[in-house]
């Protein structure tokens, strides 16, 4: 799969993709239950909302990211329509990023006042550096914003709930005549970075180094064997597993027992693949091709410019696809 690979379909959701979707009329961007209604002056019911889910824990000194390393998106919603507010001064407001106590409003359908929200903001411990450092403001563009580089300097073990949340609120000087409700993320723990050095990831991410998988110790014998075979990331491991599992097993050798092998493979397969797709075409006309996912698993066939999912292929189509897959792997 070299020059004949073509990327099609979805890619990781980015701020630009979100903005494009809203222009196309995909109004309901909220994946969870509708937020509570807040009546603002002028008949507007507006509130901020985090689109990105947070992982169960983060580490001090590391970049604050969402699940699977995703950028953290926040949107301004019209509660009445569940659509993103793309026009007007509110859609270009500046937001302050704050840290909240982990047990703040655990019931997602609860409402709160600005004063209640701010009373649960967490500041640094006495004698410590600011708890959250980096880009502490984000500016909305057409109602959508992406949090910048942020880092926690202290763990969350000293808070009653032992967890934090991120929150965003309208910055002073913006939209002062309209009440826009603040937003909060899920609660997450922040641990000291020392544990990150050798920590396994559950689930692992495609871009994780391969030693993040169970049974593969960082800089250990198995790790070195994999790196020597150019298997550096979890994605590399999964691609090799799909194309030639026996060769991968042989690379690891007798130093990995069958039970260890099963554990490593099982852990690797929990990886979230995302939406990247590759196509291997048989000729320059691009009329027939095999469609693969991130790790080169066959997902379907393109025939006469139509995509046919794997499960819908006829017996004869599957036979022709098998030979196509072999050629793709050889290239």
From TrEMBL:
GO terms for cellular component: nucleus. Keywords: Activator, DNA-binding, Nucleus, Transcription, Transcription regulation. Belongs to the plant ACBP60 protein family. Its main location: nucleus. This is Calmodulin-binding protein 60 A. It comes from Vitis vinifera (Grape). The keyword Cell membrane does not apply. InterPro entries: Calmod_bind_C (IPR046829), Calmod_bind_M (IPR046830), Calmodulin_bind_N (IPR046831), CBP60 (IPR012416).
């Amino acid at each position: 799969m070299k020059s004949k690979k073509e990327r099609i379909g979805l890619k990781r959701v980015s701020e630009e993709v979100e903005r494009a979707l809203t222009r196309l009329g995909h109004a309901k961007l909220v994946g969870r239950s509708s937020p509570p209604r807040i009546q603002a002056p002028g008949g507007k019911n507006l509130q901020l909302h985090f689109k990105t889910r947070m992982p169960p824990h983060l580490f001090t000194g590391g970049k604050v990211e969402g699940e699977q390393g995703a950028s953290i998106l926040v949107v301004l919603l019209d509660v009445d329509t569940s659509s993103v507010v793309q026009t007007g001064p509110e859609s270009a407001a500046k937001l302050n990023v704050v840290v909240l106590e982990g047990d703040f409003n655990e019931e997602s359908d609860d409402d709160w006042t600005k004063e209640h929200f701010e009373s649960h903001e967490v500041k640094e411990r006495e004698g410590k550096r600011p708890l959250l450092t980096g880009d502490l403001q984000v500016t909305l563009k057409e109602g959508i914003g992406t949090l910048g580089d942020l880092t926690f300097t202290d763990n969350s073990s000293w808070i009653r709930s032992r967890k934090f949340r991120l929150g965003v609120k309208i910055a002073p000087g913006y939209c002062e005549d309209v009440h826009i409700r603040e937003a909060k993320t899920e609660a997450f723990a922040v641990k000291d970075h020392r544990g990150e050095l050798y920590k396994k990831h559950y689930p692992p991410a495609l871009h994780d180094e391969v030693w993040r998988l169970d049974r593969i110790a960082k800089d250990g014998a198995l790790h070195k064997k994999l790196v020597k075979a150019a298997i550096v990331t979890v994605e590399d491991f999964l691609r090799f597993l799909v194309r030639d599992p026996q060769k991968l097993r042989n690379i690891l050798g007798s130093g990995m027992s069958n039970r260890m092998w099963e554990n490593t493979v099982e852990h690797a397969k929990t990886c979230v693949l995302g939406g990247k797709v590759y196509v291997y075409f048989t000729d320059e006309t691009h009329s027939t091709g095999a469609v693969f996912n991130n790790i080169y698993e066959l997902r379907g066939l393109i025939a006469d410019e139509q995509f046919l999912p794997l499960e819908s292929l006829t017996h004869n189509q599957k036979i022709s696809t098998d030979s196509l897959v072999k050629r793709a792997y050889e290239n």
